[in-house]
Each structure stands twice: as C-alpha cells, then as structure tokens.
Design a protein that fits this description.
Elements lengths: L3 E2 H6 L4 E3 L6 E2 L1 E3 L11 E4 L12 H6 L4 E5 L4 H6 L4 E5 L2 H14 L4 E6 L4 H12 L5 E3 L7 H9 L7 E5 L8 H8 L3 E4 L13 H9 L7 E5 L3 H10 L5 E5 L6 E8 L2 E7 L5 E6 L4 H16 L4 H10 L7 E5 L5 E5 L5 H13 L7 E6 L7 H14 L4 E5 L3 H4 L6 E5 L2 H7 L9 E5 L7 H7 L7 E5 H12 L7 E5 L1 H5 L3 H11 L3 E4 L2 H9 L6 E3 L7 H6 L2 E5 L2 H10 L7 E7 L13 H10 L3 E8 L10 H22 L4 E3 L3 H6 L7 E4 L20 E13 L4 E2 L5 E2 L4 E6 L17 E4 L2 E6 L7 E4 L10 E5 L5 H7 L4 H6 L6 E6 L1
Helix pairs in contact: 4-6, 4-7, 5-10, 5-11, 6-7, 8-9, 22-23, 23-24
Bound molecules: pyridoxal-5'-phosphate.
Length: about 800
Amino acid sequence: MQQINFSQFASNQSSLFIPGTPDESILFAVIDSRKIHSGKETLFIALQGSRHAGWEFATDAYAKGVRNFILPKICPSSLLKKLANANILLSISPLKELQQLAQINREAFRGAVIGITGSNGKTIVKEWLAQVLSAQFNLWKSPKSYNSQIGVALSALGINPQHQLAILEAGISAPDEMKALQEIIQPQLGIFTNIGSAHDENFKDTTSKIIEKCLLFKDVKFLVYNKDQELVSNYLASSFDPSVRISWSDKPGADYVLSVKPHRNGTKIYMMGKDLRTFTFYTSFRDKASLENLRHVITAALSLGMEPLMIQQGLELLHAVDMRLTLKSGLNGCKLIDDSYNNDLAGLELALEFMHQQVTTSGRKILILSEIQQDGDITATFKKIAWLLGQYDIDLFIGVGKGFEESKALFPCESRCFEDTDSLLKGMETLSLSNDLILIKGARVYKFERIVQKLEALAHETILEINLNALRHNFMHYRQKLKVGTKIMVMVKAFAYGGGAAEIGNYLQEIGADYLSVAYTDEGIFLRNNGISLPIMVMNPGSFHLDLLQTHALEPVVYNLQQLRTLSASIDDYSGELPVHLEFDTGMRRLGMTEEDLDEVIEILLHNKKIKVAGIFTHLAGADEAIHKDYTLSQLASFEIWSKKLMDNTGCRPLRHCLNSAGIIRYPEYAHDMVRLGIGLYGIEVNKMEQNKLEPAMVLKTVVSQVKTLAKGATVGYGRVGKMKTEGEVATLAIGYADGYDRRFSNGNAKVLIKGKLVPILGNVCMDMCMADVTGLNVCVGDEAILFGEQPSIIDLADKIGTIPYELLTGIGPRVKRQYVLD
Ligand SMILES: *Cc1c(COP(=O)(O)O)cnc(C)c1O
C-alpha cells in the first residue's frame, strides 16, 4: 500500500481516536498478529473471528512492536491500558475501517483496475489473465482467492504506486454484499465469468443473483462476458450501454467469435474480431471449463489492446492453475518448497509464510528466487524483497537473473547471484546444500522445475499427497462442534496416521491445535526435534525414561498402578514437576486403571507433589456405532464419577478428555475440557453421519510405467488370474503391496482413477507393481493413476476388503513420498 498517515485517516472517521506517540505513518495493515514479524509502520486491525475476537491478539501485536491499532469499541478498557502510547482507533466496525483504508489506497492508484466476478472460474481467470498481461504490464493481483469482504480489502491494500494495473476478484454469497466490494475495487474493466448454482439458497432467483453481482460493474468502461450465457447476456443487454459491453461467443454475432476445435493434444481457438480480423490461438487445454476461462482471458487481453501474437505467447506458458505450494523431501536431508509456478511479491510473501510454519532445526532457510518482472520502480521491488528476507530470517538468498547482482548490497543476509537457471544448475555444488529448508520460487519462463528436479530426493513416483487446506477444513469442522474453550488434542501417532508427523504437527501448531499425542516416546522426541512446541502426551511410554521425558518436555500417560508406584519412588531425584495424564479403563479393556485402583492413586498423588496431573482420560470402545450407545454412556458415567472423586480428594484440576473423532460427532456434550481428534482430521467420518461435511485430505497416487495391448483371453500377472475379456490395453502401475497397496485389492476388488475413469485392477497385486485394465482410454506412460482420494474413497476401499481406513492409511510404506500442498 501507499504510505498513509494514521492520525489523518482517523480524523476523517467518525470513530473515537486515542492518539499516542509517536504519530507514525503506516505502510502495512495486518489482521493476524502471527503474521507480524516486525511491527514497524504496521497497523493491526482487530476483526471479529468466528471463535476469537481479534482484540485478544492486540497485546501480541503490541509486543511485536505495533503501535497503531483499530479495535472494536466493545474491547475491554483494561486492554487499552496495556497498549501504552499506541495510536488507537476505537470503532463500531473495524471491518468497515479496513475497507475504508482499502478504498483510500485504491483511489490513490492511477493505473487501471480489472474486477472479476461470477460463480465459477474467478480465480483461474484472474491468475491466467495476470500471467498473460504480465508480459506488458507491471501488475498486482489478489493473492489466491481473496475475494470476500475481508479478502478484497486486503487485496486492494496490496496495490502499490508503481503498479500499472491491478486485477481483483470479488465474491458474494448473499444480497447486499457487492456494494461494499465495488466501492473498494472500482474497476474500469469488468469480467463476468459465468453464473452457476452456488448460493442460490440466498437469492430469490438467478436473475437477482446476477443483478447483485453486476453491481460490481456500476462504473466500468468495458465489460467482458460470454454471450452464450443467456440469462447473463440478457440482463447485461438491458442494463449496460452497448459501448461498454464486450461479448464473446462460439457463434457469430458477438464482438469476438471464439470457436474451439480439438487439435492434436490440445485445442485450436479461432478468433474473429468485430473488425473481421482473424487469428488462431493454440492451447494444450481441452476441458470445457478451461476453454471458457481462456476465452475470457483472450477477450479481456484483446480489449486492453494486447496483440494476439503476444497473447498467444502468454497462453503457451499457462498450465492448469497450480497455485499450490508443495513441500517435498530433497537430497541430503533438505526439504523443498516448490513454488515454481509464478512470481510476484504477494505470492512471495505467502510462500515465505508457509516456509515460516515449517520450522527446521538444523539447516538454513534458503530462498531461490527468479527476477520479478517489473517495468516500474525496480529499486522499490528490491527493497521489498530485502525487507521480506529480514522479516522471515532467511539465511541465504539465491537470486537468478541479471538484475540481482547490482542490488546484492541491499540484502540483509548472505546472497549469491546467478545469471540464469543454467548457471545455477552448474554451480549447485558450491552451495553445499544439506538439511536446509529451500523455497524455490520463480516465474514460469525461468523453468525452475529443473532446479526442483535436481534437488528432489530420488524416490519413485508414488506419492501420498496431504492437502493441508482439507486438513484445516476438517479441523475447523470438529472445532465448531465444540463449546468455545474446549481444547483439541490431535493424535499424531503412527507418523500422523501415515501422513507425516513433523509436517502435519507443524501445520496443526499453526492452525491452533492445543495438544498433540503420540503412542511412544520416540515419536514424541521426533516431534520435538522437528520444531513442535505444543504440549505432547505419550500414550504408552513403557518403562518411564524420566530424563528423556523431561529433556523433551513430554507428558507420559500413567495407565497402571505399578507405574505410578515406581514413578512415585523415583521422582524424588527429578527436578521439577512431571506432568502426567492418568488413563482410566471404563470399558475399552486396553490400557488404564480401574475403580479399585482409585484410592491408592489418590493416596500417592497426595503424598507426591512432584507428580502433576495434567489430564485424566478414558477411551471409548464403541463411539462410532449407535448400538453401543448404552455401553458408551455407561463408560462416560463411570468416568464422571471416578474423575470427580479423584479431583475432590486431591484438589487437582486436570484436563478431562474422553472423546475420539467418532465421539465428538455423537456425544459432543461429553467433551469436558479436551477432545482427542484422530482419523476425522484426514476427512474420514467413521460414524458415516457427517462424511459429506469433511474433505479427503490424503490422496495416494502413482504413474503408469508401461501400457500393453493384449489379445482377448491373454492372462495378466502372477498365477495368471487376470484375464482379458476382450482385446484391450493394460497399464502397469508403479505401486504394489510393499507400498501398502493391499494385495486383497487384486482382481477387480479395487478400482483406480485414470484419465477421469475408474478402472479395475487386473490380476494379482505384486510387491512393487500392479496392473489395471485401461481398455479404450488411450492411456500413455507417465499418466497419473489415483489409488484413493476423492474417488475412489478410502472408506469404500477399506469396506471392500473387510478392514478400516486406519489400517490402509498407516500401512502406506516408507518408500511412498509424502507431499504437502497448500492452495
Ligand atoms: C487413536 C486414539 C484416538 C483417536 O481415535 P480416532 O478414532 O482416530 O479419532 C483417541 N484416543 C486414544 C486413546 C487413541 O488411542
């Protein structure tokens, strides 16, 4: 954003301003205190979240140096005292103030603004258009899909004076929402992507939804839309001047006729303009949605006066929008964050934020960055990069591109510069990369995927992909079932159900888990060695290694009396208290003490103050099935009585916890102080009651290694049990039972998804490979095959072979690469 004087801004608002000293100008506006690294020139705006009030984090922001605040009027006056000498604006609606600030920044902007709305494709059209236009303009675009009331404001705040163009998307879900977004964006060029059924329930009919969306285009000079969308097209024709409307269609009669025809592996797009000029574009995309999005992009770029040839060059660099950041393991113990898709400052900041969450202990934090193509003020760009390097504690900066060499002096860390990607590849050895966390971010033209390939660990191409957005979604789903204040312990035992304990643990720490739990002490130590600072409960510490537990701040479970006696006898030598969780067996009959043990437990606790009871818990044996309801309730009742007796007699006030994932859904009223979330985090709802509310977080995929055409009757694999019913093709996939793809999936018991079709496994699954019938699908070597994900679902797969998703997930072998994606 441009520099804004806060007290001047405040004096124009009708809210109460408490001036502090000094009166600072602001350059950054932040709503999440965790994202502040140095609070200089920063404004913290406390918005109301669904569970937390933003003002609760004001002191955190203050501690980080922030001295400018917008707080809700209702925040406690004790808070204001803690923010000594700060400039504080007390407002009825901090969100409105944020939007006002965004509007000021927008109005100061001299360049053009493009506003995109519609039901689908907004983000992709924005990303692609930005990519095509970036050849000619220094532009700003909304990060990711920041299109809400908050997102749009933050997007507009990102516009800097040196930009020439900004592309912002706007999304609404109910009436009366667009006006505020229009006031911020004030686009001169509009794009209406399309109208679909999303949020229909909030509108009288589709036309009222179109009308609401079109409020964004109130003052546009040009409006791009698809004439074949009848309802949209009719409404626009009745309400917008012909000089404003720019339509495209498959058929003649629109301003741009853009018809599509399949062509080799892709599509040809024939264009004829109003002036009868023609041109043919080529793209590798073939699907309907992408072709619609592309034609919006082409029309918008043409309307901005871009030459077709230049647009074509841009199209060649496009690929399915993979805005996802991927965390992979690399050679020499390095971890790679692959963001070789595009390069702009907003994206850089998001990627650095993601890197920041993945704490490494041993190695350096390294950023490999290609030059950011800017026509504007180059020094401002370098300054911003330098600032980010400092904010995120980067140890080594590696710049690729000619411009970096001269600006090296600006950077606050060690830096190396390479003229182009080839010289970096040649000079890679000189960097001594080992155990480092490396963010690789470059514009498409730099082909940074070659760097990623070179640094990637040599593993076979079978991947378990963990979608962190889905993980977060599922976490939030369980959280909203619980009363505010109930803690969530996440079970990350067994390598986080196969998903990778360090990465998932770090992410859980970021999204607000309160506790983690593992089965064995080693697993806990592993988490500590990977930067996890949350409290960790160890379920089965075996014989207590007090030193190890203390060194790594692990909280053991005490599940039998003998353990407690031994602990009590040995803890005298121990300095400080040992937090433990007492497990009671109310009916699971696995681990845990029983009612008979209770008196002695109390006795020991009364006499040994070094044993601190951090938690008391029990585990339910049948929370996932209605038929066990009485049994479950009796378990919960016993727990209530026993835990109460223990607390009454010892005076301790531990966290009480009983519920696993299934229990949270069925018996949320028994959550007590904390729940223990496990399988649900990965999108598996074992009660089968709320499956549709969760998102699958794990996808197992591999590639086709070979394709064979076989005659009718030919047999496939060991034991010749697979038989071709007709002539057809068989694909060999690079996964077998050694990777955890169960041998019981043989002979059509499981299907895999290839080229959008579910096809059966043919013959027996082998140790390292298996075969699938891909007759008629035109499958090629290297094509992707999905073993489970959205489809086929792991739940159905487990059902098919008489097991449970837990077993399939935790059985995925160490040879399978884990990759973490965040969109
Ligand atoms: C594994 C485990 C859980 C989590 O179970 P899910 O069914 O995966 O939710 C909870 N508590 C204990 C004691 C566990 O062992």
